C-alpha cells in the first residue's frame, strides 16, 4: 500500500447517477492512486437498477472495498492517511448525515473523519430541485471547506454521447484532487483548448447565425393565421386566411391590405 497522498476514498450513495462513481473507479485503475471503496445500502441498489454492473464487479475496480456497516474498517480512522474522499454520486440524505455528524454507516463515518482531519471532501450532489433544507445543509458543509460539486454537464466540448458527458464530469472531479491521468490533458490545457475552440472561425460563424435567428424570432410577431369572411364579385361569402400581422396593419390603417 502507498502513502496517504496516493489514497483516495470513494463513496457511492443511493442518488441517481451511479455511473459517475463507476467511471471514476475505472479511470483510476490506470493511475497510481489507491481507491478505497464503500457503497451505501441504497447505492448498491441503485447500481443494479441503473447500470449493467453488479456490486462485486465494481468492488473489484477498487484497490480495496468495505461493507457499508463495517465501521471498524481502516477508513473510519483518522490515523489512516488519505488524499481525501469523494462521494460520487451523493444523495441529499448523505449530505444531511455528513452535515450533522450522523455516522450511521461507514460512508458517513469516513466522510466525518475526512472533515475532522481537515482533508479534501468532495460531494457530487445529485438532486433537483433543491429545497431550503438541502441548500442549508450544503451551505453548512461549504463553510466547513467541503466542495459541493453538482454534476452539471458542459456543452462547450460538444458531447455526442452520454459517455462523453460522464467522462468530462469525472475528469473535473479528479481535478479537485489534482489527479491528472497520463495521456489526458490537465485543467490548464483543456481550458486553453476550450478557448481556442470557441474562438475558431467555424464556431464564431455558428454563434453569429444562431444569434441572428434568435433576435429575428424575438422581434417578429407570431405569423398565425385566422379565417376571415369576404364577399367575392358575385356577392358570395368565402373564407380567406389572413395573417395576424396583416390584420394588425388593417386595424391600424382602417384599409384592407
Topology of this structure?
Blueprint: E1 7-12, H1 18-28, E2 34-39, H2 41-50, H3 55-59, E3 64-66, E4 84-90, H4 92-99, H5 106-116, E5 120-125, H6 132-143, E6 147-148, H7 162-175, H8 187-198, H9 201-219, E7 225-231, E8 237-243, H10 244-253
Helix pairs in contact: 1-7, 4-6
- Percent in strands: 15-25%
How many beta-strand elements? Answer: 8
Identify the strand order in the major beta sheet.
Answer: 3-2-1-4-5-6
The separation of the N and C termini measures 85 Å
Give me the number of helical elements: 10
Structural class: alpha/beta
**Uncertain residue ranges:** 185-192
CATH topology tier name of the largest domain: Rossmann fold
The number of domains is 2
Name of the CATH architecture of the largest domain: 3-Layer(aba) Sandwich
Average pLDDT, all residues: 82
Assigned CATH superfamily of the largest domain: Flavin prenyltransferase-like
Whole-angstrom Rg: 28 Å
Question: What's the helical proportion of residues?
Answer: 40-55%
Name of the level-1 CATH class of the largest domain: Alpha Beta
Q: Write the H/E string, N to C.
A: EHEHHEEHHEHEHHHEEH
> Could you say which overall geometry the principal axes of the C-alpha atoms support?
elongated
Oligomer: single chain
Amino acid at each position: 500500500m502507498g502513502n496517504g497522498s496516493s489514497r483516495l476514498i470513494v463513496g457511492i450513495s443511493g442518488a441517481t447517477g451511479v455511473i459517475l462513481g463507476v467511471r471514476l473507479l475505472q479511470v483510476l485503475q490506470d493511475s497510481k492512486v489507491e481507491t478505497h471503496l464503500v457503497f451505501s445500502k441504497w447505492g448498491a441498489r441503485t447500481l443494479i437498477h441503473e447500470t449493467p454492473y453488479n456490486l462485486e464487479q465494481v468492488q473489484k475496480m477498487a484497490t480495496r472495498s468495505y461493507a457499508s456497516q463495517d465501521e471498524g474498517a481502516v477508513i473510519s480512522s483518522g490515523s489512516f492517511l488519505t488524499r481525501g474522499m469523494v462521494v460520487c454520486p451523493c444523495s441529499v440524505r448523505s449530505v444531511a448525515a455528513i452535515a450533522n455528524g450522523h455516522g450511521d454507516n461507514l460512508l458517513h463515518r469516513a466522510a466525518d473523519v475526512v472533515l475532522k482531519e481537515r482533508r479534501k471532501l468532495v460531494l457530487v450532489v445529485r438532486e433537483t430541485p433543491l429545497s431550503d433544507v438541502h441548500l442549508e445543509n450544503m451551505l453548512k458543509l461549504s463553510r466547513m471547506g467541503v466542495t459541493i460539486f453538482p454534476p452539471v454537464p458542459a456543452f462547450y466540448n460538444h458531447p455526442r454521447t452520454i459517455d462523453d458527458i460522464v467522462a468530462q464530469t469525472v475528469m473535473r472531479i479528479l481535478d479537485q484532487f489534482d489527479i491528472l491521468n497520463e495521456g489526458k490533458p490537465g485543467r490548464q490545457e483543456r481550458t486553453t483548448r476550450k478557448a481556442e475552440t470557441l474562438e475558431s472561425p467555424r464556431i464564431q460563424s455558428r454563434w453569429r447565425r444562431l444569434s441572428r435567428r434568435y433576435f429575428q424570432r424575438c422581434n417578429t410577431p407570431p405569423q398565425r393565421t385566422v379565417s376571415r369572411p369576404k364577399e367575392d364579385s358575385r356577392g358570395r361569402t368565402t373564407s380567406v386566411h389572413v395573417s395576424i400581422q396583416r390584420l394588425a396593419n388593417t386595424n391600424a390603417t382602417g384599409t384592407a391590405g
